[in-house]
Amino acid sequence: MSDTPTRPRLSLREFEVLRAVISVRKTTAAAARLGISQPAVSRAIKHLEERLGKTLFNRDSGRLVPTSDALALNEKLEPVFEMLAGIENETFVSQHSSKPLRLAAPPTISHRFLLGVIAEFIKAYPGQKVELEIGTSSDVRNHVAEGHADLGITDGLSKHAGLTLEPLRSAIAHAVLHRDHPLASKAFIEPEDFDGQDFVALTRRFPVRAILERMFAERGIRPNIVAESSTAVSVSELVHAGVGVSVLNPFPVARNHPETLVFLPFKPRISYLNAFILPATTPSTPIARKFIEFTRAFEIEDPYSTPA
């Protein structure tokens, strides 16, 4: 019998951590995706590096940049995780496909983001039915709280005793302008830039409308409101048509007309948080939890928002 001490084996969980950090480049975001703590992510990466004798990540401006060794290891792991995902999908669908996933979301998130995720989810889980209810953020909260939807997604964060919130993506407000607008060449936009400008506003049920009106009033600024709308998509379409300028949550409307619309940071900072909402009084359904995991892993190409 050998007296050589047995070294701890590498675990599948540690490889999951590696892949998550490569994907999102931050330990906090990787922890949120995997449902574990940030220190657990850091320990897993440290253990992998010690066992492999290789540096897997370098730090650059607060982000973790994978080394060539990390990328090579991830490539070797790809078929393993594809096989595991296939087994998991077959088992999950056989158990839950008879129960529809009931989703609720406002129009902008639904049409510019969620439908793409739903399409890929249905392809990944054949036989799984999805029901999507589209309404105002208030409608979405009520649907989930009253049990008419398993899961909601919204950027309206009003407190509701019957709901719990799980962050998805965070962003800051951006001014949206046509590329030919005189202000489009600026690095950022301030309230004073809107004085006398034709402005397309969201209706007053949106919190950002009250925030902007207060800023304008305090500074004596008077934008010329030429149109109001109840969705960010329609506001961006009016800006695209050259009607005026606006201030919006860039996620996910910044995907609209990238060839003609310019999104510039708005100062003072206005923060947004797009989040999942779930019933607070009952456990989340397995299919809702599966959709949350699927959405977090969905590749989102959006330079104006980050995983929350």
UniProtKB/TrEMBL annotation:
<keyword id="KW-0805">Transcription regulation</keyword>
<keyword id="KW-0804">Transcription</keyword>
<dbReference type="Pfam" id="PF03466">
    <property type="entry name" value="LysR_substrate"/>
</dbReference>
<keyword id="KW-0238">DNA-binding</keyword>
<comment type="similarity">
    <text>Belongs to the LysR transcriptional regulatory family.</text>
</comment>
<feature type="domain" description="HTH lysR-type">
    <location>
        <begin position="10"/>
        <end position="67"/>
    </location>
</feature>
<dbReference type="GO" id="GO:0003700">
    <property type="term" value="F:DNA-binding transcription factor activity"/>
</dbReference>
<dbReference type="InterPro" id="IPR036390">
    <property type="entry name" value="WH_DNA-bd_sf"/>
</dbReference>
<dbReference type="Pfam" id="PF00126">
    <property type="entry name" value="HTH_1"/>
</dbReference>
<protein>
    <submittedName>
        <fullName>Transcriptional regulator, LysR family</fullName>
    </submittedName>
</protein>
<dbReference type="InterPro" id="IPR005119">
    <property type="entry name" value="LysR_subst-bd"/>
</dbReference>
<dbReference type="InterPro" id="IPR036388">
    <property type="entry name" value="WH-like_DNA-bd_sf"/>
</dbReference>
<dbReference type="GO" id="GO:0010628">
    <property type="term" value="P:positive regulation of gene expression"/>
</dbReference>
<dbReference type="InterPro" id="IPR000847">
    <property type="entry name" value="LysR_HTH_N"/>
</dbReference>
<dbReference type="GO" id="GO:0043565">
    <property type="term" value="F:sequence-specific DNA binding"/>
</dbReference>
